[in-house]
Amino acid sequence: MFEFITDEEERGQVGIGTLIVFIAMVLVAAIAAGVLINTAGFLQSKSQETGQQSSKQVSDRLQEVVTVGQVNTASNTIDAVNVTVTQAPGAGEIDLSNATINWIGPAGTKTLTHDSTSEGGWQFNTTSVKNTDNSNTVLNDADDRFSINFDLNSTTAPNSPAELPEGEEVTIKINTMAGATTSIRFTVPESLGQKTAVEL
Question: Where are the transmembrane segments (predicted)?
Answer without folding.
Answer: 12-37
